[in-house]
Amino acid sequence: MRRLIFLLSVASFSFIGLLSSATASFAQPRGDVQEQADGYQWPKDKAVLEKLDLWQDLKFGVLMHWGIYSVPGIIESWSICNEDWIRRPEGSSYEDYKRWYWGLSNEFNPVKFNPEQWADVFARAGMKYMIFTTKHHDGFCMFDSEYSDFGIAHGPFAGNPKKDVAKYVFEAFRTKGFMVGAYFSKPDWHHTGFWNPYYATPNRHPNYDVKKKPDWWQSYVQYTENQLKELTGGRYGKLDILWLDGGWITGDAVGINDILPQARKVSPGLICVDRTIKGPNENYQTPEQSIPEAQINHPWESCITLTDSWGWIPDAGFKSSRKVIGILAEITAKGGCLVLGVGPTPEGLIEDKAIEILDQIGEWLSRCGEAIYSTRTTDVYHDGKFWFTKSKDATAVYAIYAPQDGETIPSELSWKAHLPSNGKVILLNTGKTLKVTVKDGIAKVRLPKGLKQEPLAFKIYR
């Protein structure tokens, strides 16, 4: 289930029957979510394999959705898609609503845009890679594309020296040592070669028969190829990840097989993520807002939001730092990475509540990150509330105890797998060595008094 919030408090929108502070649930069509392990093809390019191995060491990243939908604080793009799971304000006309939505481009003016603040916040959080939304399905460009006037560089922000937003975001994160990724939507609902205004808009797909209008379709294909070449051709520096969203359009359809070889001359080892399109261009898989039920031992990443939405929304409900750490521990034990969705505000900042939670996560990782970073899976990876990982060189095993929100950590813990060979473990939270009793295949450890109520990470001597 996907939780969506619509808060459309803008004077230019004439429909006042708003869902103020209301939250509605919608079933995301399953075609957009890939949780299965089958169908993965290992890349043949040695440089891509090496980059994937480095990426798998990082474990924790951030995915930033930011665009005109951030102005009123609503779901990214989807409210203009005419599908039956979408909810718009009662009494609204679809065409009027769509015109209002496109018109947000005239209001998006993030005068406090500060990518250095973003990079500082996410570095403190212990994140090691980033993915920035250069264009979502609505077609609004967060980079200065020469092929479109519908973008941040052509509205009220046009006079700002940082109008080529993506360039400055990538630079800020490279300076902090992040792997840098570009999110790009293959579907473009604003382009007339995809949604042509001659016809109504029935759903997310092209609104005409592409076989009957090949010139319309080719105009969209050429446009998309041109923008992908802009992003990957060197103008935005070396990229580590190209994250292609919108799985109802394949990368093949927009020329990715021709684009990638050239892109990898600029960015050797570039990881391509043609989401949910099984094949050689989906270098890692991406279950959305979910975690696979079992361990998967090829590259994958769960993309999960910090709040109820990918972009910024007012009065959001946040996951706690304990919850996020537990999610990260489970994903790591199952062989994946976590990219956490955090949306900047309309002004261009990371909001204080998000910073507070991210700082708590980063503080925990500064003490316990050894159990997360550069780890790999173990044969037995789960026991009750424990998640197990091992060091990349297999010399150490880690046990992460992940309690639920509000749960008090007991004075004694026990687990069945990965028993210590010398009766001792290190509690990474404190750095102290603890004695362990092992009897009948069960390890028990008594915890010291005064511990913080947080997930615990143990280093087990082999």
Could you characterize what this model shows?
The longest helix has 19 residues, at 214-232. With 462 residues, the protein is an alpha/beta fold. The strands form three sheets. Strands 10, 11, 12, 13, 14, 15, 16, 17 and 18 form a nine-stranded antiparallel sheet that branches. The model is unreliable at 1-35 (pLDDT under 50). The chain has helices spanning 46-58, 94-103, 115-124, 165-175, 214-232, 256-266, 321-333, 352-368; strands at 2-5, 23-26, 60-64, 129-135, 179-185, 241-245, 271-274, 301-305, 337-341, 375-376, 382-383, 386-391, 397-401, 412-415, 424-427, 432-439, 442-446, 456-460. It has eight helices and 18 strands.
SSE arrangement:
Elements: E1 2-5, E2 23-26, H1 46-58, E3 60-64, H2 94-103, H3 115-124, E4 129-135, H4 165-175, E5 179-185, H5 214-232, E6 241-245, H6 256-266, E7 271-274, E8 301-305, H7 321-333, E9 337-341, H8 352-368, E10 375-376, E11 382-383, E12 386-391, E13 397-401, E14 412-415, E15 424-427, E16 432-439, E17 442-446, E18 456-460
Parallel strand pairs: 3-4, 3-9, 4-5, 5-6, 6-7, 8-9
Antiparallel strand pairs: 1-2, 10-12, 11-12, 12-13, 13-18, 14-17, 15-16, 15-18, 16-17
Helix pairs in contact: 3-4, 3-8, 5-6, 7-8
The helix fraction, in percent, is 10-25%
Tell me the number of helical segments per DSSP (H or I, 4 or more residues long): 8
Q: Spans of 5+ residues with little confidence (pLDDT < 50)?
A: 1-35
| Dominant shape | globular
Number of strands: 18
* Largest sheet, strands/sense/barrel: 9 strands, antiparallel
Order of helical and strand elements: EEHEHHEHEHEHEEHEHEEEEEEEEE
